[in-house]
Amino acid sequence: MSLAQTSLSYYLPAHVTYNESIPTPKELLGYEIGDWHVSHDQLVSYMKAMDAASDRITLVEYARTHENRPLLLLTISSPDNHRQIEGIKQKHQQLTDPNVSGKLDISNMPAVIWMGYSVHGNEPSGSNASLLAVYHLAAAQGPEIERLLRETVILVDPSINPDGLHRFSTWVNSNRGKNLVTDPNNREFSETWPGGRTNHYWFDLNRDWLPLQHPESRGRLAKFHEWKPNLLTDHHEMGTNSTFFFQPGIPSRNHPLSPAKAFEITKKISTYHAKALDKIGSFYYTEESYDDFYYGKGSTYPDVNGAVGILFEQASSRGHAQESVNGVLTFPFTIRNQFTTTLSSLEAVQNMRQEMLEHQRTFYQQSVKEGAKAGAAAYIFGTEKDAMRAYHLAEIMQQHQIQLHRPKQNITVGNMTYTPENAYIVPLAQPQYRLIEAMFEKRTKFQDSLFYDISAWTFPLAFNLDCATLKNTKDAGPRLDQIVKPTGTLEGGQNHYAYAFEWHGYYAPRALYQLQELGIQTRVATNRFSTVNGQSFDYGSILIPVTGQSLPPDSLYTHLQNIAQSNGITIYSLSTGLNSEGVSLGSPTMLNLKQPKVVMVVEGGVSYLDAGEIWHLLDDRFGMQVTLLTQDRLNRANLSRYNTIILPDGSFNDISTSGREKLRSWVQGGGTLVATGNSLRWLASNNLGEFNFRTTTGTGAKTVQGLYADLENARGAQQIGGAIFDTRLDLSHPLGYGYTKSQLPIFRNSTLFLERSQNPYANPLMYTADPLQAGYISNHNYANLKSSAAIGVSAIGSGRVIGIVDNPNFRAFWYGTNKLFLNSLFFGQIISGASAR
């Protein structure tokens, strides 16, 4: 197929004149839109040029990616609106404040529309369509565009995921010939692992609107709440053989906390999209495939914030032109559909402006009333031994504009005492009541048994925090304007004997790694002990002798002070090795530790999402070095430089027979092999550890004739898209160090069920007999899950294989189980062979 130039008229609406002083994309990029995939730097250059050329546009950089690329937001409106933009913004924010919103006159208030493009980097038609959107809004002339700009403020986020877009555009542009090859087998359409969908750490940013674990999301959300848009459009792509989708999605899968009015407005807006796509002859569908349940997605988060989110899914050319069941799908065609629905969205909001503004006002007024009528006055959450996890949850909540308070004094609920230092109070009678409920609820009953994404995300469970309801807020202190990060201390001053800290703090592993990086010798307590001055130390406490270190005592003391402060832990000065209870400091149960030398195997059949979560945890959050080793290179690599190897969820068929033998010999020699998810199946099939699994076949019922039309839904109902379950943890086991309660909530999104070992010490974490805490699971899967093993430890020679069935690092916000994974890296070396299978 020869390369045919696509003219700008292919995209733009007919009978519209354009200001010739505004540069077209081709004038600045050197090619017509759709002929090449725009790179992120080109996109930024064009947007900056448009900012300079048009008095309708102002541009700001709202964040930087992990790879230091700028994220941009363009504010587009009439010049007159720009002159009073802060006043417009202030009034729009007041519309979400029930204390003042009732007095506002919305008859002339502009609606605010957020246009978000290509959160997935390899779904590029959105970002390329943003070029057209900005050009059209800057250059179009006539009474229609002037009225639109007068009655709306349009916010354009041209590339939500710059790192992914750069990765993908580089791939397809470098693998395109002068003559387009439409054969689906062509290399252009087969990105190398991990592909361009994700950000730098291989995260799906369209799942991060609620967890807010990445700079892209945090910066974007700050702007979202600065503006409080009425409509947010979210432009995606789907399979090549599809057509075009726009919301509403499947009605039975709407989240119950979202108001019915949001779906009513979505339905009305859909008629504008249908009319626009009919006009250009594009096929489409709606109310199928997708849903509005998980609030961490860009098209659903607005629904619980007084706005409306709209998902668009365009069949993807995955390059420049590709054969499909609908004929050859060209890149320009995909861009045109995205641009067309951009215009139909603008038309809808302009015509429905007052209705959408009124919906926003009513939403927040009703939210406060509903919160005041709730069965409780507030939630309180915290934890006794680790203020850092509570802080990180509070930090997330404040970014979501949720009002928080500290207790004025200790509050005891049940067996838990919440303190002003370690706890937070969340009143329910506040504008973000619905979002609070979405973050705290433990829903187990659902209208539908299928979910496009996860079915539960209860944040106190994710952070493994104590949480309770309060009948009143009389013990709540003033509202917190800023969440202050906890800092640690070194107690007892300098001495010449030893120091120690408990393993409870979230960043205790980072503190240990920093000590090991300095060459400081460390030991771990495998028993509890108490000092003569009454200080108690739990399993897993870290001991730092003063003598025998490479650093002089003064320097060691200074480093310990800094490490304690930055990691929010308390390090204690110990002046004697004779303890009042438990073992003495010189006990043989105080085991020497080696610094983890970590390699993670990637590519091939490895899940890039799971691997990315591990990489982010170790590299970004805990400051640890981790080598990313491809499967084919493992076959040739010298493994002796590592003592810890990680196999993320996935398959490892690119490891050769000799590579597997090398891996076995490495474990036998004392290495720690840590595996998660389905990599346990690969280990079991290659005799690298003893792991047996419960069957997942059948439905648990007598076979009867089924209706073929129900086949897809019946299969889907047997998937565990994501739910939360209760487990029982052995606190004395090295993998349980740092935990204070044996009950541990864990996230599960697979149907992998591990049989319990005959060795009673080989399964330090097990599911309880009735484990469901939140989310959906079928009866058949639930029967398999009950009382099964969540972790299995296997011995091979002098080494250990640690199999973790579920994902302890899910989407970077599952803080409560991160320590399970980190313990396997730091303490796998000390697990007794007698405790393994």
Automatic annotation (TrEMBL):
Q: Which cofactor does it need?
A: Zn(2+)
Residue stretches spanning the membrane = none
Query: Where do the Peptidase M14 domain residues begin and end?
Result: 36-335
Q: Name one Pfam family in it.
A: Peptidase_M14
InterPro entries for the chain:
Class_I_gatase-like, Peptidase_M14
The superkingdom of the source organism is Bacteria
Question: Catalytic positions?
Answer: E313
Recite the UniProt keywords alphabetically. Answer: Hydrolase, Metalloprotease, Protease, Zinc
| Family named by the database record | Belongs to the peptidase M14 family.
Protein's UniProt name? M14 family metallopeptidase
User: What is the source species?
Assistant: Rufibacter roseus
